[in-house]
Specification:
This protein has 429 residues and is of the alpha/beta class. It is built from 20 helices and ten strands. Strand 9, helix 14 and strand 10 form a beta-alpha-beta unit.
C-alpha cells in the first residue's frame, strides 16, 4: 500500500515525514510513530505533485485551514485563485475548495495546480450539482465524484459518514436543526428513502479509493451545533460516537483520518468537547470550526470564533478552520479571507506559545527586542501581517513627523515625552 499510515506502520520514515519533522523541530521517528498510531496525519495525495507536506496532530504546531470556493450566486475562477493566493500569503496551512456553483471541476483543478499547501474538498457538493434534487443522489455517483477528485490530487476530503438515520430525529429537536450543508443533504436523503447513510453503508468502498491515492478522510460533523443553545447535545455526541468507530475502520484499512468538530460552543464547554473527542476517537487529530463562542456578533465572527479557536487548540485541537467576518452573511471576498486567516494565525500561535511548542515564542521575543530598539522595519518583518502594521504606522506618523522632525523613536500613542520605551532607555544609560 502507498499510504503514509501503512508505510509508517511498516517502520518507514517517508520523505513527507522527514519534511514535517524538520518543519516542526522534532525527531522524524516521533512523526513516524504519530502517523502509525493515527494521532498525526499528513494529507498528501500521490497525485498532488507540487505539495509541501503539512503534519496535523496534537503534538505538532496548530494548523489553520482557509475555506474558499464559489457559490451559485457569487464569485468565479479568477476570484477564487485570488483568494487562494491571499490565504497562502498570510499563512493558511491548508485550503478547502467548497465550490457549489459553476465550473467546480475547473476551479478545483486550477487550485491544485497553484497550491503547494494540502487541498481539501467536500465531494457531496459536486455530486449534488450533477442531480436535480439532493434525494436523487446515488452511492455510485457519490463514489464516482470521490474518485474523480482523488485522481485530480485532492489531499483530504470531508465525508459525513457518521450521521446516521437514527440521529436525525435528535437533530430535529434543536433550535437550528442541522446547519451543515453536507449533513442536511444526507439527512434529507435518508428521510426520503428511509435508508441508512450511503457513505456509512459503503464505507469500505470509500476506503479503497482513499488507499489508492492516499487521500486523508476528514470525518465530517454533519450534526455540529449551529448555535450555543444546541451545543453538546445528544445529536452531536451520537454522531461523534459513530465517528469514533469510523476512525478505527480507517486505521485498520490503512487510511489516514481526522475528525471534524463543533461550530458554536460556549467557552465553558470547549475543554470538555476537546477531551471527549480525544477519548472517543482514539487521539485522532481534531479539526474544529471556530468554535464560535457567542451568536450575537454578525460581521465580527472571525473574532468570536478565534477566541474559541485559541481555547480549542490549547485543549487539544490540531487544526482550526477559519471563520471570516462574512460568516452567516455572505460569501467571503479577498479582504474577508485576509482577516479570517490573520485572526486564526493569532489564535493558533497563542495556543502554541502557551503549549510551549518548539520555537513557538521565538518570533514574539524577537519583535519585543525590535520594539525596545525602535527598529520599525524589523517589527514589520516579524508581524503576522506586515503590510497592515506598516500601513497603520505610516498613517499615524504623517502629522507627527512633521511636528517632531525625523526622530521616530516613539509612536503616536504616547509621543516622545511620555514614551515608556524611550524613558527606559534613558534610565538604562
Amino acid at each position: 500500500m502507498t499510504t503514509q499510515i501503512a508505510r509508517a506502520k511498516g517502520g518507514e520514515i517517508t520523505p513527507q515525514m522527514k519534511f514535517v519533522a524538520k518543519d516542526e523541530y522534532i525527531p522524524a521517528e516521533l512523526v513516524r510513530k504519530g502517523v502509525a498510531s493515527g494521532r498525526i496525519v499528513i494529507p498528501a495525495n500521490i497525485r498532488h505533485k507540487n505539495l509541501k507536506p503539512v503534519g496535523i496532530g496534537k503534538i505538532l504546531r496548530t494548523k489553520i485551514n482557509a475555506n474558499i470556493g464559489n457559490s451559485g450566486l457569487s464569485s468565479c475562477l479568477n476570484e477564487e485563485i485570488a483568494k487562494l493566493k491571499i490565504a497562502l500569503k498570510y499563512g493558511a496551512d491548508t485550503v478547502m475548495d467548497l465550490s457549489t456553483g459553476e465550473n467546480i471541476c475547473e476551479i478545483r483543478k486550477k487550485i491544485l495546480a497553484v497550491s503547494d499547501a494540502p487541498v481539501g474538498t467536500v465531494p457531496i457538493y459536486e455530486a449534488v450539482s450533477l442531480v436535480e434534487k439532493p434525494e436523487d443522489l446515488t452511492i455510485d455517483l457519490l463514489l464516482e465524484v470521490v474518485e474523480r477528485q482523488a485522481e485530480q490530487g485532492v489531499d483530504y476530503m470531508t465525508i459525513h459518514a457518521g450521521l446516521l438515520r437514527n440521529h436525525v430525529p435528535l437533530a430535529m429537536k434543536r433550535k437550528l436543526k442541522i446547519v451543515s450543508r453536507g449533513g442536511a443533504i444526507l439527512a434529507k436523503w435518508m428521510t426520503v428513502h428511509k435508508k441508512e447513510n450511503p457513505f456509512y453503508e459503503n464505507f469500505d468502498r470509500l476506503l479503497a479509493i482513499c488507499r489508492k491515492y492516499d487521500v486523508t478522510l476528514s470525518l465530517g460533523d454533519g450534526l455540529r451545533p449551529g448555535c450555543l443553545a444546541d451545543a453538546s447535545d445528544k445529536a452531536q455526541f451520537a454522531e461523534l460516537a459513530a465517528l469514533g468507530e469510523l476512525v478505527k475502520r480507517c486505521r485498520r484499512g490503512g487510511v489516514q483520518a481526522m475528525v471534524e468538530g463543533p461550530g458554536h460552543v460556549p467557552l465553558d464547554q470547549i475543554e470538555m468537547n476537546m477531551k471527549i473527542e480525544d477519548k472517543i476517537c482514539g487521539g485522532a487529530p481534531f479539526y474544529i470550526l471556530g468554535p464560535i463562542v457567542t451568536d450575537c456578533a454578525p460581521g465580527y465572527d472571525h473574532i468570536t470564533s478565534a477566541i474559541g479557536g485559541a481555547l480549542g487548540a490549547f485543549y487539544g485541537a490540531s487544526m482550526l478552520c477559519y471563520v471570516t467576518p462574512k460568516e452567516h452573511l455572505g460569501l467571503p471576498e479577498l479582504e474577508d479571507v485576509r482577516n479570517g486567516v490573520i485572526a486564526y494565525k493569532i489564535a493558533a500561535h497563542a495556543a502554541d506559545v502557551a503549549l510551549k511548542r518548539p520555537k513557538a515564542r521565538d518570533r514574539d521575543d524577537a519583535i519585543s527586542e525590535a520594539r525596545a530598539a525602535f527598529d520599525w522595519e524589523k517589527q514589520f518583518e516579524l508581524a503576522l501581517d506586515p503590510e497592515r502594521a506598516r500601513e497603520y504606522r505610516s498613517q499615524a506618523m504623517k502629522k507627527s513627523v512633521k511636528k517632531k522632525g525625523k526622530d521616530e523613536a516613539f509612536c503616536t500613542m504616547c509621543g516622545p515625552k511620555f514614551c515608556s520605551m524611550r524613558l527606559s532607555q534613558e534610565i538604562n544609560k
